[in-house]
């Protein structure tokens, strides 16, 4: 089954690019209908445009409160028949107008093993704490920051002597594999949220 995606970004968009590439090479049966950026200078907007994807900028200066932005985003996504919304480096919370329009259909990627190291500096915080294992989490979003049912996680052993930049590079490598994999699971209809808030992945 081919699914329609919307992607929310704020920055460089390397995760967006990884998904664009896996769609282009036929690994994922999906299309990206719209990329929304919370910043007009996000490099990811150029990546989307280069791939022929429609873009929309919802810069803070365009609206008076977050709920207004999320109402507009919900309506733009719905009018394009979007099945799932992917947050990919999106530095805003999603609010009720969007969550209610896409229940358990908004996905986020976080560069640490949730519930540890939530927030905007997950890689640096894990590094500073001195953890020996960290990783990447892909989860459904809810109205709390970096919470919601976990779909997939991948662990990474932190090597002795790594700088935080080296750790970051390894985390991004994992992200660029794991996020497309999860989109593939969504496209295959294999991701089910249980009543207790956990996620089951159906066998292939
Ligand atoms: C990624 O590390 C993601 O986990 C975090 O923000 C970063 C976005 O990178 N939420 P990019 O914009 O996809 O390059």
Topology of this structure?
Layout lengths: L2 E7 L4 H11 L5 E8 L5 H8 L4 E3 L8 H14 L4 E4 L8 H6 L4 E5 L11 H8 L3 E8 L9 E8 L6 H24 L3 E3 L5 E3 L3
Parallel strand pairs: 1-2, 1-4, 2-3, 4-5
Antiparallel strand pairs: 5-6, 6-7, 8-9
Mind explaining what this structure looks like?
Helix 1 (14-24) packs across helix 6. This protein has one domain: Rossmann fold (3-Layer(aba) Sandwich), CATH 3.40.50. The chain has helices spanning 14-24, 43-50, 66-79, 96-101, 122-129, 164-187; strands spanning 3-9, 30-37, 55-57, 84-87, 106-110, 133-140, 150-157, 191-193, 199-201. The chain is α/β, with parallel strands linked by helices and 204 residues long. The strands form two sheets. A seven-stranded mixed sheet has the order 3-2-1-4-5-6-7, sandwiched between helices. The mean pLDDT is 96. The two termini are 14 Å apart. Strand 1, helix 1 and strand 2 (30-37) form a beta-alpha-beta unit. The structure holds 5-O-phosphono-beta-D-ribofuranosylamine.
Q: Look at the helices and sheets and give the structural class.
A: alpha/beta
CATH superfamily: Formyl transferase, N-terminal domain
Helical run tally: 6
Shape: globular
CATH class type: Alpha Beta
| Strand order within the widest beta sheet | 3-2-1-4-5-6-7
Could you tell me how far the N terminus lies from the C terminus, measured between alpha carbons in angstroms?
14 Å
Give the cofactors and ligands.
Answer: 5-O-phosphono-beta-D-ribofuranosylamine
Which stretches are poorly predicted, pLDDT < 50 over at least 5 residues?
none
Q: Roughly how much helix do the residues carry, as a percent range?
A: 25-40%
Q: How would a crystallographer describe the biggest sheet?
A: 7 strands, mixed
Query: How much beta, percentage-wise?
Result: 15-25%
